[in-house]
Amino acid sequence: xxxxxxxxxxxxxxxxxxxxxxxxxxxxxxxxxxxxxxxxxxxxxxxxxxxxxxxxxxxxxxxxxxxxxxxxxxxxxxxxxxxxxxxxxxxxxxxxxxxxxxxxxxxxxxx
Amino acid sequence: xxxxxxxxxxxxxxxxxxxxxxxxxxxxxxxxxxxxxxxxxxxxxxxxxxxxxxxxxxxxxxxxxxxxxxxxxxxxxxxxxxxxxxxxxxxxxxxxxxxxxxxxxxxxxxxxxxxxxxxxxxxxxxxxxxxxxxxxxxxxxxxxxxxxxxxxxxxxxxxxxxxxxxxxxxxxxxxxxxxxxxxxxxxxxxxxxxxxxxxxxxxxxxxxxxxxxxxxxxxxxxxxxxxxxxxxxxxxxxxxxxxxxxxxxxxxxxxxxxxxxxxxxxxxxxxxxxxxxxxxxxxxxxxxxxxxxxxxxxxxxxxxxxxxxxxxxxxxxxxxxxxxxxxxxxxxxxxxxxxxxxxxxxxxxxxxxxxxxxxxxxxxxxxxxxxxxxxxxxxxxxxxxxxxxxxxxxxxxxxxxxxxxxxxxxxxxxxxxxxxxxxxxxxxxxxxxxxxxxxxxxxxxxxxxxxxxxxxxxxxxxxxxxxxxxxxxxxxxxxxxxxxxxxxxxxxxxxxxxxxxxxxxxxxxxxxxxxxxxxxxxxxxxxxxxxxxxxxxxxxxxxxxxxxxxxxxxxxxxxxxxxxxxxxxxxxxxxxxxxxxxxxxxxxxxxxxxxxxxxxxxxxxxxxxxxxxxxxxxxxxxxxxxxxxxxxxxxxxxxxxxxxxxxxxxxxxxxxxxxxxxxxxxxxxxxxxxxxxxxxxxxxxxxxxxxxxxxxxxxxxxxxxxxxxxxxxxxxxxxxxxxxxxxxxxxxxxxxxxxxxxxxxxxxxxxxxxxxxxxxxxxxxxxxxxxxxxxxxxxxxxxxxxxxxxxxxxxxxxxxxxxxxxxxxxxxxxxxxxxxxxxxxxxxxxxxxxxxxxxxxxxxxxxxxxxxxxxxxxxxxxxxxxxxxxxxxxxxxxxxxxxxxxxxxxxxxxxxxxxxxxxxx
Lengths: 111, 905
Description:
Structural class of chain A: alpha+beta
Oligomer: heterodimer
Largest sheet of chain B: 12 strands, mixed
Largest interface: A-B, 25 and 27 residues
Shape of chain B: globular
Low-confidence stretches of chain B: 505-511
Strand order of the largest sheet of chain A: 1-3-2
CATH architecture of chain A: Orthogonal Bundle
Radius of gyration of chain B: 38 Å
Mean pLDDT of chain B: 86
Strand content of chain B: 15-25%
Structural class of chain B: alpha+beta
Number of helices of chain A: 4
Distance between the termini of chain A: 19 Å
Strand content of chain A: 5-15%
Number of domains of chain A: 1
CATH class of chain A: Mainly Alpha
CATH superfamily of chain A: Winged helix-like DNA-binding domain superfamily/Winged helix DNA-binding domain
Number of strands of chain B: 23
């Protein structure tokens, strides 16, 4: 795999955000950085899709937020998973794995 | 749960907007800071880092907008903004807004009003439990019947009803009823109310619960008929008893007999006849008591009942119909009138019963008014269309004025959809205001409409309560018109290329063809539609005129009908004729009375009777039907009907003298080959079936009997003095110059001097005429109103388009003038444009009218729907209005100063 950044597969951003927040609460920039780092720069998340996603996930009840101080002593909005969000993540991960495996099988069979 | 959260979040966004926005600002700024810090850590200068972070983010506003767009509240917000903006624009143009709203309100109001009436008399189901189960039983194809017909719906006889009730299988319950007018005055002047004869099952099968006391049951309708109970309607209770709680057990005099009030029906129940309300309901079994010698209860040829029932669960109308059809021969065999001759009997035994849906009740209003109302609804829709296209025209004019604005907004990034939405919001506002005002207007108009077809003697009761159908109709036509006058111009207005619009700094010399084309199409269709409406209006008013002027064979003004009820005097049959003659003498002596006569049947009152006659002509015998009226001397003088040959009846004609008759011209023409009939004889079957000879002693001019539309019918007049069984009532027609009021009071005191126990009722003859012209007058008035409105709207539309055209072509006109064109030729240029539009509209309109007016054919009297005079009148009047509308702007164009016109850029 190259390091060239690509767009996200449709609908996966929500899952990635949920996954990123599985261990700890984070603020917007932190989430963007984490996704970029872990994907080794393959996924670059721009704020134009990140912030609408936060609003969407919050509305769905999967995220909640609160204002906290950052390590640099600034105020930032931290997002964290709700119980519902955790359940959603589990479901989406399972579904993703199932589909990815299926796609892999198909690709293998064709070659 | 998640829906609730979404709702709460949206509401927070709406109501705590400032805080939500502040938080978003802070969050985004935090993101930018963090991003810049990160970049500085990697070695960028502060300035570079901040710039890079900003570029990465893209437009900050853009991100915010995307976040806002996530929630549903944003849609609401843009809509609200659009509406506010639209409202502001309309406030800047109050004249435009007022004209638009008013014309929409008129169109929507008129349509809703007509639909409301249609809904009430045709579409709405009866306000009873499960109305869809109700069905009516009647003879499927009854081509004529013989006997007495005593109610508005003489469908079946009582013996038939009893057979049907005993033998039917498809109904869980059945009932019979018949409408009747009752006199509830204990004496003196008649106080008539609307009554119902009902079988004992009536209220029970309909599932009506009493408001007070109890309703009639099967126990009240037994053959023995011991007690005399009456159920009164809610409105009667309020009107006559002031809603008195102690009404139960009170006595009510009905046709001189005491009845006991046992209960009050609920307020929303008006019976099963749509268009009427009832005041009192009494059991069928008391009929012989009330009608005494004229009772039809046990007569096998007395038609007066309507039979209805509730189908058993699972039974379809077809099944019930098939069952009744199967048992029909037995039923008619068992109820065959014994006195029928073989021909009548054969016809009678061939009847087949059928079951028909009755969920919307029974109504004879439908026959009279359903088609006219649908037609009016069609005309109303045309008016609304014209109003809408006028508005579309105005909106188009505004759209081209706002072309630059639209181009500018698209250039800075507005999408076409967003602009259309905003333009639509404006028309939605207009539509909404128009609909609200229209609904108010409809409320008033419907009541006016009902009042105009309701008469004192025949009051109409229509339940006009709002329901989903009316709401749906109003909403539907509003949305449709909005789309029509809003969407098309909006699509047009936003079909601009921003670059082209911004480049052209001023007006071009001539306006674009395509943009202007739509407006011409609109004007042409307006002219065509208003021509159709004008043709309709003129057709109906000419028809009414012809009806009002028709030669009825009698002078309608100045005649009063007096009905006297002599029952209370208990006169023996042989003294009645003499007594009636005495009353007539007394009336004739009243000052101001020109003439007075007894009349068995009053023309145009809707009553009539006809008989079989046998006329000897040469050697053969002609059999035919003739109308019959039993009259006293002076009858023809009272109506101003000329006696053409022979004599009037006089004192020579008595019970014992030879039977005589006077016939009308049609009788003579049809049965006596038009020869002078005086001296000829014909035979009339007497009650025992023996033909009896009558000698014709006079010939009179033809006169109408049932209504003004009919062809003259063969009619014979028989002297009332030769009648063997005079009734206990007397109808007298009086011609007088005196005022109605003084005449009636003189008559009253005369009657009271003769005998205080005589009941009396007075009906001015004009009222019958008025009633018989009711529908025609309604059609003439409403179509006239629509026609004028349409012509006005179309004229305004044409004026608008020509004015607009002149304005758009100001510089062209200026150039033409500068090049030497004189005023005359400028005038011609503009007028040619107008006359092309007008001519095209008239052509299409004429074609459409010729096709459409066929729908009105049966409602017209004395003229065809293709009446030439009508078309000429319509075309001429519309052309005159259009000429005026286009001449004004044309003259303005011709008076332009070329210098001013050219400087206009």
